[in-house]
Amino acid sequence: MFQSRVISSILKRNKAILNSLTSNLKGTSSSSASATSTVARSSFYGFRSLPKGHHVPSFRNMSTVASVGTEKKGLKLLVTAGPRAQKMVGIWLFGSAAWVFSMVVLGGVTRLTRSGLSMTDWKFTGNLPPLSDEEWQQEFENYKQSPEYKRVNKGMSIEDFKFIYWMEYAHRMWGRALGVMFALPFSYFLRKGYITLRLGLRLSALFALGAGQGLIGWWMVKSGLEEPASEYVQPRVSPYRLAAHLTSAFVIYSGLFWTTLSVVMPEPPAESLAWVQGAAKVKRLAIPVSLIVGITAVSGAFVAGNDAGHAYNTFPKMGDSWIPDNIFELKPLIRNFFENTSTVQRDNLLVEHNNTSNSVKST
To answer: What is the torsion angle, in degrees rounded to the nearest 10, for the CA atoms of residue 181, residue 206, residue 236 and residue 317?
Structure first.
């Protein structure tokens, strides 16, 4: 306010001097020079009289600020309230994506240690682990009723049971902790108004998928607690449900990671020719690579679900032949690609071999 008053005073003073110069146009050149110097001197002293700490921004600075503002407006921001809020949301989403990745790794370890069927019940909110010898004995007795104990782990000691129980318990609770870690900051950012409607809907969908992942996990485990159709078949979870569980995890991880990148690196306007060309190049590479990785992962899930990795231990031949005789023995034909151990293993090996060959060629 004070600065504007000073500038207004200076302009009025200069206007009066200019009016006097106009009325004396017939004056000598010396008087004109004197008047000009007076204008310059009054302007100088006027600006000099501004208090310290106050300055008039230059045209160069104002144009820079204007251009930055224009660039900011052009970006498709998913987080409001400035760079600090954008950084906070980005760190939170990066952490969530890393947590989901660790869940996939922990799930793989649980699968490899054959711990997934050690817990014979499930609650959405979870429960405390056994804390006394009596509680451990009760859990062990529940496990003894399962087909896996009767056909695979008969005679297992309670100490061995505790190991596989803790593995499955850690996997479940790690997922619940992820849900809490995601929900609390999400609620906070929504309340502060940092998140746009577009981002809020996307994160809500990912959160719903995460909650559903727990249900899919129990749906998968429950299939392994049922008696197999034949006494010669080892109990295992349904390969279809295992593939659904793994695919859902990859969808959640990919969605979170993509959303994180969209937050920390906002999309420029469609009018940006350089961005459109760059995005087209990335899209041409990203889509086929994503499809190949996805097919390989799902194929691996069916291998794990059918224990098809144990069918043959030779490559490129399968035993003494290139193509086993039983590769299409199931009816209808489509079942062989998902339930026949020979076919599932061959398909997975071919997919992995093809991926390796393409990678070598591209380098």
So the answer is: -120
Global pTM exceeds 0.85: no
CB 148 within 8 A of CB 235: yes
pLDDT in tens, 150-192: 988 998 999 999 999 999 999 999 999 999 999 999 999 999 9
Dihedral of alpha carbons 107, 110, 115, 119, sign: negative
Measured CA to CA, the distance from residue 21 to residue 39 in angstroms comes to 10
Q: Distance from CA of residue 237 to its chain's centroid?
A: 28
Instruction: Give yes or no for residue 350 having a pLDDT over 90.
Output: no
What is the model's pLDDT at position 272? Answer: 63
SS3 for 53-71, per residue?
A: CCCCCCHHHHHHHHHHHHH
Quote the CA–CA distance of 121 and 143 in Å, as a whole number.
10
The widest CA-to-CA distance across the chain, in whole angstroms, is 122
Helix H, strand E, coil C: the string for 150-192 is HHCCCCCCHHHHHHHHHHHHHHHHHHHHHHHHHHHHHHHHHHH
Q: How many CB atoms lie within 10 A of CB 5?
A: 9
> And the tokens for 218?
């129990």
Q: How far apart are CA 40 and CA 67, in angstroms?
A: 32
Q: What share of the chain is helix, strand, coil (3-state, %, to 5)?
A: 70, 0, 25
pLDDT at 93 over 60: yes
Residues in the chain, total: 363
CA 139 to chain centre: 36
> How many of the other CB atoms lie within 10 Å of CB of 239?
22
Q: What is the DSSP letter of 333?
A: G
Count CB-CB contacts under 10 A for residue 271: 8
pLDDT at residue number 233: 75
Count of beta carbons in the 10 Å neighbourhood of residue 178: 19
Q: Is the Cβ–Cβ distance between 240 and 56 less than 8 Å?
A: no
263 or 311, higher pLDDT: 263
Arithmetic mean of pLDDT over the chain = 78
Handedness of CA 193, 77, 260, 94 (dihedral sign): negative
- 330-343 per-position pLDDT tens digit: 889 999 899 888 88
